Amino acid sequence: MNKFTTTQEFKSWRQEISGSIGFVPTLGALHDGHLSLVEKSLQHCDLTIVSIYLNPTQFSPDEDLRSYPNTLEMDLKKLAELSVNTVFLPSNSEMYPFGFTTYVNESYLSKTLEGISRQEHFKGVATIVAKLLNIIQPRQVFFGEKDAQQLRIIQKMVQDLNFPVEIVSCPTIREKSGLAMSSRNANLSPEELKSAAIINKALIEGENLLQSGEKDADVIRNSISKIISNESRISVDYVSVADSSTLREISSKIIDTVLVSVAVYLGNTRLIDNFTYPSSSSK
Ligand code: AMP
């Protein structure tokens, strides 16, 4: 497997490569959700490159950067089993050398949902994705719908700044319990893992209400909150029914596609999940 840790090494290798490149950026601690993106890239592109980089600028000082799971050897093994032959593993000094002062700041979609509790988060995400796209120069880049707001912000950045890349969105992969797979799930105790299953159950109930014709956004929000609050271990940060394109909260009747999303804390662990209604496949 090619393992590049510097931009320079990567670029001289990249110059010799022809054919389509698919790219999957990750923070590491890979699970089947990440691997589903990798598999899609392997199907679509001649060559797949995965980056593993725990980007510090998308974590605020009070967040879980230090406790973020680090399983590099296992990650590389999983990628090798899928026959991924190139990974990019830059260091912090490679990505943010002394004197680094330029950031990418999406200023509309970033202001809601995750952006309220995590104010600098999307600036860190957009900056590192912009850098990685410039370095890797893929034809397609793969992102998960699990991070729905991130996906929309990256789509907007690519459109606004004319990045020559196609974004491919990939469905959320779940545990048997329905819990969305996340690297952060590794930090949950067995009891917390059991409690976390309520998140998806509550979202399914919200989707059932929408399917049965409910148009009042408050009814959907309240129903989801009520179900989650049955689990005493969970504290809810937000339950949102937002316009799927603008990410602004719906205050009256639902007429267009909505993004229904939640963020909760289980102990110190923050978990997010969502669905879009109607989903693009059912429209
Ligand atoms: P992360 O390492 O958390 O930054 O995730 C890297 C990519 O994997 C992002 O595009 C995520 O949206 C995607 N991803 C994370 N969890 C899942 C999941 N359960 N299903 C599908 N994609 C996921």
Write a brief structural summary.
This protein is α/β, with parallel strands linked by helices and 283 residues long.
Labels describing this entry:
single chain; 9 helices; 283 residues; six-stranded parallel β-sheet; alpha/beta; 9 strands; three-stranded antiparallel β-sheet
Give the SSE layout.
Blueprint: E1 2-4, H1 7-14, E2 21-26, H2 32-44, E3 47-52, H3 72-81, E4 86-88, H4 92-95, H5 114-117, H6 121-136, E5 140-144, H7 148-160, E6 166-170, H8 190-211, H9 217-228, E7 234-243, E8 258-266, E9 269-277
Parallel strand pairs: 1-4, 2-3, 2-5, 3-4, 5-6
Antiparallel strand pairs: 7-8, 8-9
Helix pairs in contact: 6-7, 8-9
The structure holds adenosine monophosphate (AMP).
Adenosine monophosphate binds at residues 26-27, 33-34, 36-37, 143-144, 146-147, 170, 172-173, 180-183.
